[in-house]
Amino acid sequence: MAAPKRQVPGVPTQTGTGLVEKATSVVQSFAPINKIHQHLCAFHFYADDMTRQVEAHHFCAHQNEEMRQCLIFDSPAPDARLIGIEYIISENLFLTLPDAEKRLWHTHEYEVKSGVLFMPGAPGQVQRQDLEKVSKTYGKTIHFWQVDKGDNLPLGLPQVMMALTRDGQLEESLAKGKTTPLTLLHFFIF
Predict the structure, then answer these.
(1) Does pLDDT of 39 surpass 70?
(2) Residues 160-174: pLDDT tens digits?
(3) In this structure, is the dihedral angle defined by the CA atoms of residues 48, 119, 170 and 56, taken in order, positive or negative?
(4) Residue-level pLDDT at 94
(5) How far is CA 98 from the centre of its chain?
(6) C-alpha distances out from residue 63 to 68, 89, 108, 133, Å
(7) CA-based, 20 to 30 A from 101: which of 24, 47, 48, 166?
(8) Residue 173: which H helix or E strand, with range?
(9) Residues 72-78: what's their mean pLDDT?
(10) What is the rounded distance in angstroms from the CA atom of residue 132 to the CA atom of residue 21?
(11) Other CB atoms within 10 Å distance of the CB of residue 56
(12) What family is this protein classified in (predicted)?
């Protein structure tokens, strides 16, 4: 069960800092971040402890047709905490990986087919088109902030995360109200 969100320690952002941020946003390039074009929501569990599960909001950019890279936040809110990253690759690229490396990756097939991986707010047709591609991909996910423990800062070692692969794995408290956008949609995809 997810711990309640805690305030990040530190002095609130000052007006002067806000002005500098505004000025730099006008003169600096944010090309990698500006490539982000997609919001996916899914649920991850710690590779060494399936009982520790977290909601993960992915903000993704394509490197090409066979690879995406995603920043993962604990929510879609403006004050969301950056908790990890995920690399998403095609099955073709996955099959080229050494066997020892493959153990660090997870398939997205079940997540998409079950509806627990979805695109919040996106129209059904857009979701169907892209999620059909996503269902045939693999992800390597690292979380740096163990938000389920209630930590105020990203403490401890980075953690390899995995994805759900069958019915009954998702904690009920996380599932409430989250899977409804796709409960019927996935029947139209597959």
Answers:
(1) yes
(2) 999 988 787 777 777
(3) positive
(4) 98
(5) 24
(6) 5, 10, 18, 15
(7) 166
(8) helix 172-175
(9) 95
(10) 39
(11) 24
(12) Belongs to the OBAP family.
Amino acid identity, position 133: K
Token pair, residue 99, equals 């066997």
Amino acid found at 91: E
Contact 162, 143 (CB under 8 A): no
pTM (two decimals) = 0.83
Backbone angles phi, psi at 102, to 5 degrees: -55, -30
Q: 3-state DSSP: the chain helix, strand, coil percent, rounded to 5? A: 30, 30, 40
Task: Write out the E strands in 4-155.
Answer: 38-46, 49-64, 67-73, 82-90, 106-107, 137-143
Which candidate, 107, 8, 100, 116, places its Cα nearest to that of 55? Answer: 116
The structure tokens 């979701």 sit at 127
The stretches of 50-159 forming alpha helices (DSSP H) are 91-94, 99-102, 109-114, 124-134
Q: Which amino acid is at 151?
A: D
Do residues 117 and 69 make contact, with C-beta atoms less than 8 angstroms apart? no
What residue type is 159 in one-letter code?
Q
pLDDT at position 14 is 74
Place of tokens 């401890």: 156
What average pLDDT does the segment 131-136 reach? 95
